[in-house]
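Researcher: I've been going back and forth with a colleague about how 2-methylaconitate cis-trans isomerase might be arranged in three dimensions. Neither of us has a model we trust, so I'd like an independent prediction. The organism is Halomonas citrativorans, in case that matters for your notes. Sequence below.
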Amino acid sequence: MSSVPQIKIPATYMRGGTSKGVFFKLSDLPEAAQVPGKARDQLLLRVIGSPDPYQKQTDGMGGATSSTSKAVIIAKSSSPEHDVDYLFGQVAIDRPYVDWSGNCGNLSSAVGPFAVANGFVDPARIPDNGVVEVRIWQANIQKTIISKVPVTNGEVQETGDFELDGVTFPAAEVAVAFMDPADGEGAIFPTGNVVDELEVPGFKTLSATMINAGIPTIFINAADLGYTGTELQEVINGDAKALAMFETVRAHGALRMGLIEDVSEAANRQHTPKIAFVAPSADYTASSGNAVHAEDIDLLVRALSMGKLHHAMMGTAAVAIAAAAAIEGTLVNLAAGGGKRQSVTFGHPSGSLRVGAEANLIDGHWQIDKAIMSRSARVLMEGAVRIPGNSF
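Model: Here is an independent structure prediction for 2-methylaconitate cis-trans isomerase. You can compare it with whatever you and your colleague have in mind.
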């Protein structure tokens, strides 16, 4: 039997927010993978351990969930206005596919610390103690992200007392601002409406807010789907009929948003759009066992990622929530009680999260200058990943 030696590729395994992924410097990738294409996709699939019919990713770095099947490529930015270019790949678990159609908001919080620690930021800007602002170009969606990275004794501070629901241990707070998160002028609502009636053949017509801010997202009222908004993962993910229903609604929403030309194309675009359901605030017990009280939150939100209910909330979907909450009349805004809002605290399966955004109606178009939230990030392991040399 012939054998092929493994190759080593420098890499860093990082947690960012409630996600984790493998981070690469573009210059460290094999030459064939330094450009977009089949070689890059195959390399990342092998690193993460996909496709895996067992859906465990045992033979790779992935964790067999949408939150842990991720890869990031960082390069020195060619733009003088930015420090780094950040490219995100959502790696499918059971199929040979890498989705480059959107950003990961959670891992965005790890990009700034990675950039500082790996020499992408001018040392003259890094204080001995304080905060350094890292300007990030998000290459998937062509947007600017500003990360405020804490520094202690000239190095990235990773430990601290900032607690984030969905993450077990406290860490240092990293403030992240997503600048102009809407996809182009006037396109924050692709249909032009804050609420649409979405026809779903074989199901029913649903009221929906379809917004493109942070990441394309479809919001539905929980009650219209037969839910309360307090559901945890097992209620949805253990129900094959429910998951199929959500995917059908998502596909028809994607078509209505102009993201695909035929509903069949949604199967090859798992990362976007997201689908979420909202409800007014209510008491519930989070997956941690901690009580979430209705008076401490403004609304309930549950979101699906890669076909499964997320254990907390995707960072990019949190941007969409912030933007939609700030615009009067959206389903998110109405679930939060309506009126003009600059921030909301929403309940998710793991607890709660506060997000902020300010909306302005300019020449008949809604504009979001920025959406802000706090996350945390930490290096889990650094060194090199190994894959068979014939993997790409």
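Researcher: What would you highlight for our discussion?
Model: I'd start with this: Residues 276 and 303 are 4 Å apart (CA to CA). After that, consider the following. The radius of gyration is 20 Å.
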